[in-house]
Each structure stands twice: as structure tokens, then as C-alpha cells.
């Protein structure tokens, strides 16, 4: 049993397990956000805030950040 665990660690299985946990967590976050945004009250509130306009205003800043980061 102990030798099997050592062999699995050498083959990179723990890294695969960590990647699986990371992707599983990301999937749960996306699923949770989808559940929240599917609520009509939340949709109405987000429409009042003007999230689409906010995204248009933030996009140039994000592009500038990515250019600086690539230098």
C-alpha cells in the first residue's frame, strides 16, 4: 500500500487531484453566480445599476493593465 502511494506521487497524481479541486471550485462559483443572476429581482437590480455601461468603461483600463503586465 505504501509503495503504491509513493508511485502515485511520482507520476504526478497529487497535482492532478489539486487541479481537479481547483476546476471543481471554479465550476461551483460559476454555477452559484448563475443561480443568483437567474433571480428576476437580481436581474432588475442589475439592470438599474447599468452593469453593461460599467463594463464598457472598465474595458480600456483592463487593456492598459494587460499591456503593462506584458512588458
Description:
The chain is mostly helical and 71 residues long. The chain has one domain (2-70). The protein contains four helices and no strands. The longest helix has 25 residues, at 13-37. The relative contact order is 0.05.
Measured on Cα atoms, how large is the radius of gyration?
Answer: 21 Å
The figure for the number of domains is: 1
Helical run tally: 4
Question: Strand count, sense and closure of the main sheet?
Answer: none
Range of helix content = over 70%
Mean pLDDT: 79
Number of strands: 0
Unreliable spans are none
Write the layout of secondary structure elements.
Elements: H1 2-10, H2 13-37, H3 40-49, H4 51-70
Task: Give descriptors for this structure.
71 residues, mainly alpha, 4 helices, flat
Summarize the structure.
The chain has helices at 2-10, 13-37, 40-49, 51-70. With 71 residues, the chain is mainly alpha-helical.
Amino acid at each position: 500500500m505504501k509503495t503504491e502511494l509513493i508511485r502515485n506521487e511520482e507520476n504526478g497524481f497529487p497535482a492532478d487531484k489539486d487541479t481537479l479541486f481547483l476546476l471543481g471550485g471554479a465550476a461551483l462559483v460559476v454555477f452559484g453566480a448563475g443561480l443568483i443572476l437567474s433571480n428576476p429581482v437580481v436581474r432588475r437590480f442589475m439592470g438599474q445599476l447599468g452593469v453593461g455601461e460599467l463594463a464598457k468603461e472598465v474595458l480600456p483600463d483592463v487593456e492598459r493593465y494587460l499591456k503593462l503586465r506584458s512588458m
